[in-house]
């Protein structure tokens, strides 16, 4: 894998401008719902959008696609070492064989968290995100604060998410592009050896597959 696509926590993006600041200050406007509704109304009135089709699309990405698909993939990788090895070797093929492909045909690369390395994903140029397996990206992922700061201060940003990485563990930042999207395979929750793939999937969170969170623990199992 080319080193041009990832950055360890002691490296910077020299070709981007970065600005410090709290993640809460550079998210979406305070009235995004109002803006979206106004746009939807205008497009509907002009006959350019079918409200039913729009509702179906939103339902698919919020409730049926993401992040449930990604969670199932992670859970299967926890349960089946051979599947995990194939996933890490060629995630695009493995996920494609399961029937889940990127909207623009982009490649998916799986990166695995270990005792030595913690991975986190960003898109510094815009907000490239694996919609086909994680659904709609969260607002913070698209914010300028996250996109700039996680590259130069990944430990600090992760701490703001409530995730403190041990000093001895390397933090590796993966920069998504229009051609390549990343899926983090988080470390398996402890004491889950007897769980089925379906039960394991319920422990996998969206943030854990981006690297800004961890899977749920046994006590949080539905």
Give the strand line-up of the largest sheet. 1-4-3
> Which architecture of the domain at 66-220 would the CATH scheme give at its second level?
Alpha-Beta Complex
SSE order in H/E notation? EHHHHHEEHHHHEEHH
Low-confidence stretches: 10-21, 24-30
Helical percentage: 40-55%
Q: Give me the CATH fold name of the domain at 66-220.
A: Nitrile Hydratase, Chain A
Largest sheet: 3 strands, mixed
What percentage of amino acids are in beta strands?
5-15%
Shape: globular
Please count the helical segments: 11
Helix/sheet category: alpha/beta
How many DSSP E strands? 5
Average pLDDT number: 82
Radius of gyration: 18 Å
CATH 4th-level superfamily of the domain at 66-220: Nitrile hydratase alpha /Thiocyanate hydrolase gamma
Distance between the termini: 37 Å
> For this structure, what is the CATH class of the domain at 66-220?
Alpha Beta
